[in-house]
């Protein structure tokens, strides 16, 4: 099973697939690369993908080339997120997970006034919906779970709050 790796922080100048392939050539010959380019200008959009044969080879490349300086840019390499349905390679860059907001945001894209349904009526937004990094939580088990990176800090805050409410 092949593994796709996201290669970020590529320089915006002209880069072709062979140049990126040459960077990863020492990791093995069965590696394929793809540089994502802007459709209009043909310049690199700042990221690409490397496909390898297995997890061991992927981990080796991440360990060896993450931070590697390529044309004055330190590469960022990580396992690529799986594609979502209807998403092309150019849109497949790792995106932040959508956040859950407790209140809907008003549409602020009404440059021409009116109902805001002008040119963008049927187009999907590439941005995740929601108003930032806010998440709502409730006490039932079906609620959205907190981000595991902040779980220990959240637990500490809960304990402090409980201590404040029990001490008059």
UniProtKB/TrEMBL annotation:
It holds the Pfam family RRM_1. InterPro entries: Euk_RNA-bind_prot (IPR050502), Nucleotide-bd_a/b_plait_sf (IPR012677), RBD_domain_sf (IPR035979), RRM_dom (IPR000504). Residues 94-110, 134-143 have a biased composition (Polar residues). The keyword Hydrolase does not apply. Residues 3-82 form the RRM domain. Keywords: RNA-binding. PANTHER family: OS02G0815200 PROTEIN (PTHR48025), RRM DOMAIN-CONTAINING PROTEIN (PTHR48025:SF1). This is RNA recognition motif domain-containing protein.
């Amino acid at each position: 099973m092949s593994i796709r790796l996201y290669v970020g922080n590529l320089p915006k100048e002209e880069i072709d697939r062979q140049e990126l392939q040459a960077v990863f050539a020492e990791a093995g010959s069965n590696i394929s690369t793809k540089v994502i380019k802007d459709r209009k200008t043909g310049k690199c959009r700042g990221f690409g993908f490397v496909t390898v044969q297995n997890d061991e080879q992927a981990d080796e490349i991440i360990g060896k080339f993450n931070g590697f300086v390529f044309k004055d840019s330190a590469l960022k390499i990580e396992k690529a997120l799986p594609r979502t349905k209807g998403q092309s390679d150019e849109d497949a860059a790792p995106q932040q997970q959508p956040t859950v907001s407790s209140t809907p945001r008003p549409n602020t894209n009404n440059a021409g006034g009116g109902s805001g349904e002008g040119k963008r009526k049927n187009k999907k937004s590439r941005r995740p919906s929601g108003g930032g990094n806010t998440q709502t939580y409730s006490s039932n088990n079906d609620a959205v779970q907190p981000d595991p990176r902040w779980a220990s800090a959240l637990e500490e805050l809960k304990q402090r709050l409980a201590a404040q409410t029990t001490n008059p």
